[in-house]
Amino acid sequence: MSTSTYTAHDSHAINSMGLWLFIVSETALFSAFIFARYYLTGTDQPSELNIGLGYAITAVLLSSSLLAYGAERRIAKGDRRGFLWLTLGTIVLGALFLVGVGLEWREAAHAFAPPDLFGVVFFSLTGLHATHMVTGLIALCFVWLVGWRGGFGATDHWGVTGVVRYWHFVDAVWLTVFPTLYLV
Amino acid sequence: MQLAPTAFLRDWAFGPLAFGMLVGLVMFFAAAGLIMGVRAWAGTEPVAFGPVVLGAYWFGLAGWLLGIGVWSKWAKEWLGLPVDRTMKTGWQRYFDFTTDHKVIGVQYLVTFLSMFLLAGVLAMLMRIEHMSGDQVLFSPAQYNYVMSLHGITMVFVAVAAVIGGFGNYAVPILIGAKDMAYPRLNALSFWLAAAVPVLLAATFFAGGFDAGWTAYAPLSTENSDGQVLFNLAFITLGLSSIAGSINFIVTVIKLRAHGMGFDRLPIFVWAVFAMSLLGFFFTQYIAAAMLMTLLDRVFGMAFFDFTEGGDPLLYQHIFWFYSHPAVYIMGVPGLALALEVISHFSRKPLFAYRWVVGGILGITALSAIVWAHHMFTAGLSTAELFFFITTTEVISIPTGLIFLGALGTIWRGRLWLRTPMLFALAVVFNFLIGGLTGIFLADVFTDIHLQDTFFVVAHFHYTIVGAGIFGLFAGIYYWFPKITGRTYSEHLAQLHFWWTFLSFNLTFLPMFWLGLNGMNRRIAVYPEELEFLNLLVSLGGFSLGASFLVFLYNILKSWIRGPVAEADPWRARTLEWQTSSPPPVENFTEAPRVVSGPYDYGSPSTAHAVFGASTNPDGAG
Amino acid sequence: MAEICHKTSSILTTSSGTTTVIDLTGSEPQAHERKTLLNGRNVVTVFVIWLGLTVLGVFGAYHADIYPIAGNHLASQVDDAFRLLMMLAVPVFTFVVTILVYSMVRFRRKTDADDTPPHTFHSHGGVIWGWLVVTSGLTIAVLIHPGFTGLRELTADRHQDMVVEALAAQWSWNFTFPEHGVKLDKANDLMLPQGTRIRFDVTSRDVVHSLWLPMYRMKIDAVPGRTNHIYLTTGEPISFSEDPNVRVQCAELCGTGHPRMQVRVSIVDQQEFDIWLGGLEPVIVGNE
Ligand code: HEM
Ligand SMILES: [Cu+2]
Ligand SMILES: [Cu+2]
């Protein structure tokens, strides 16, 4: 492939910058919903909120990020087997998180279903986050599949780096959403 | 030959389009069927416009994009499969998932100019209605639909035509790059945007929408189904803008040719860069506003539903938090394009270049903190009013620097009054009126009366049409020889200019008076006393509409049969003129190296760039 | 070389077409560029034209009678503010337009060969700073008056003689006079007593509307779920039949009935107002 510039450039740096910009942009989307939470409901919280479950899924998600970090390190060292296992672990923990959200939603749908205002912000924020999780999971599956077919290597794994960075970002978003809904 | 159907779809000129539509429709209806099935299974009425369309749309959109080329030219790569690297040539490129930024620029231009003309027809219809103070042509519901459709279509045109069209066409050449940073994402942005007119047209079959381009809740959570399509269209264009903005930012930061420092960036590139900084971030807020409206409408949420404790003002805050920056996205690229033309056609350096750049960046920064000046009558607290008066008025200072740049440049130049220059100078004139009347609106004391009247209508037409669209036309005439390799008729072009310029002012100047004298906006019925002036405005409007026929005739005829253009008919310095007309794929035959500023006229000893024999190894990356 | 030119030298092309590059260092380029930019004859001509146009324009802006009927003192003050802003906008407008048109005439390219201006300059510190000072000065002036002073005018006096509750609905205005215990639903006509300070409590039952009284230059949105207030003092008796701006007009798009969502207003003396009130429907408490 020819490069798209007349000066020597680093395609990794270009891709990386684009991803960072995308992440900053997504932050704006979440910030609008987080703003709506405080604007509409202040710091109110219904007593039915299952904070224990909230902590549990947070822990699951954090561990998945750790595994994702490991997966990237492995492939950078050329360790394909380790990379595949750790990616798989990330996917499993991510899916587990979504199951946890599902459980949370079952309770929430009884206790404060929209149009209850807390329900409105709760479901939209967790739903928006879950949508990003699903996107991330699909991307991780792609990464796993490509890796499994022998696709990435120690020097050539932007796909992994990018998806893992996105995964960390979705994780970081949860670390804002969680206190916004459960703790303040 | 063994894969005859796919080969046919790939090679036939309209194959990708047809295949995209087919896959899109199939996925749309499959998803719609699935959703209805699930609804029936869950015991709810299966056929419901909101949930079915809202859900199925994304599948239809994905199918359309995958079908038109994302799959065969891009996504297969993610699975390690071989991708189709063929590129069509000639006119067929414009109907394909082509990654050449010049093709994409023309795609944007033609698409959004067509939308501009169609929405212009709607404006003519509205002006027929306004020839009398009473209802004459439309029912009230029809009027509201026509008005809303005109508004949102024109807003989309203003957001996408200059940046999407000339941003794509010119920015990579102006900075000496072969293409954008992400050529395939660029093609994706365009084909995403192409779904927007389809959605807008489809509103006709879904009962229309009547909440204006601002779509204030809760009106927009209760009106007819067409509103759902409106919201989806806004989100879709938003996605396209975000992708495009990120592309521009990275392109300008990373792909500048050797020697092209930020202090040598053509001013148009600066403007696209700065507006992309707004676009990639703030566009998410319009997505949020549209999404919340849809959630309220379709999923029974209550962001804006006061009966449940929601607040309609939340919508307005989020909406304007995007839409104020957006009005700059609509205006500033055209303004900068005018400055670009003014320097080349005055044969003089852009005056106070660094200050003009500072002005653009100042506007960019300030535009994030002025949004509530659209809500002065919404019931803000005194402290809020105080804050937003201050920030809004202060915007005049960086705006003034742009005028300084224009005036300093023409002063004692050698003004070459060809059509691009005439349009560019008209931008300065129109934007002056637009900007000065902004002060009346920025001041709460006077704005309380003027808000939501024709005064505001006049103001934003002077800024957006006067700067954005006049800038677009300056750009079209300026770059026409470059894009098409042909020359247009200067006589017809000047006829078009004067006709448009005079009609434009005849149409919009009286509107200030109308607004001040009690004509509120978005109405078909108004006090009889204002009929005469409205008639005048209508006549101006018809004349404005007719003037575009001259434009169309000239452009179409010249594109097909115009005399062949030179590489640099304007003898301008910037890089796009240092390559053939039209430029080759990847723009230059030899790598450019920039050695001086883009506007250093008066120093024939230096060129802006030299070609070839560069010290850097090309293609090493 | 190019960079040097850019910063420290001026390049002169004499009108005969030969190019002289004068490499000046130190403070001289500024001195030279000032001469180029502020060349005597052109500047004087432009100044004279500008001054003439400005005098005419300011005079016109001062006397222009473009305002609708002003129903009270505050409305006249708003018009004064509008007039002041026009008078300040005129010099800016004439300045830009004079330079535009003058340049188009005087500095136009006459022949094809005449392609290079005799003088080029990139920048001029004095002009830029002067421009900044003037535009900032104007901005701050306008910000203070009529900006802040107008804001104070609007918010200072928070007392009223009478309260009117305005409830907007698709597509009618409904007024209640709580102190008198009467109301007027789906109003076509509204009477208000002259010379009375009235507080309007404005809200909506469905979508956003806006209560606009053009003759008082007063407007406030009717936002469902909130009550917004405006204060205004009615002036002399007048009625809609005399001027269409004596009306309540919905000013926020609210659906099909939006343009016709208006109420004819009459300002009357207290006696007539009381008679009118007596004819209204009483508010039955607990029947809202
Ligand atoms: C010095 C510059 C400007 C100032 C001080 C200014 C001020 C304002 C204010 C205060 C309003 C709100 C008016 C109201 O609704 O009562 C307004 C409306 C508007 N302005 Fe500007 N403006 C400026 C420049 C621009 C530019 C550059 C654009 C676009 C290119 C623009 C586009 C608009 C639009 C579209 C609206 C109306 C939005 C709507 O209600 O539909 N303005 N302007
Ligand atoms: Cu604004
Ligand atoms: Cu209304």
Q: Which terms would index this structure?
A:
heterotrimer, B: 621 residues, mainly alpha, Cytochrome C Oxidase, Chain A, 2 domains, 19 helices, 66% helix, globular, C: 288 residues, alpha+beta, Immunoglobulin-like, six-stranded mixed sheet, 6 helices, elongated, disordered N terminus, binds protoporphyrin IX containing FE, binds copper (II) ion
Neighbour order of strands in the largest sheet of chain B: 1-2
Name the assembly state. heterotrimer
Give a count of the beta strands of chain B, DSSP E runs of length 2 or more.
2
Global structural class of chain A: mainly alpha
How many structural domains can be distinguished in the coordinates of chain A?
1
Broad shape of chain A: elongated
Count up the helices of chain B. 19
Low-confidence stretches of chain A: none
What percent of residues of chain A adopt helix (DSSP H or I)?
A: over 70%
**Gyration radius from CA atoms of chain A, angstroms:** 19 Å
Major sheet summary line of chain A: none
Mean pLDDT of chain B: 94
Percent range for β-strand residues of chain A: under 5%
Task: Give the CATH architecture of the largest domain in chain B.
Answer: Up-down Bundle
Q: What is the CATH class of the largest domain in chain B?
A: Mainly Alpha
CATH names the topology of chain A as Four Helix Bundle (Hemerythrin (Met), subunit A)
Give the name of the CATH architecture of chain A: Up-down Bundle
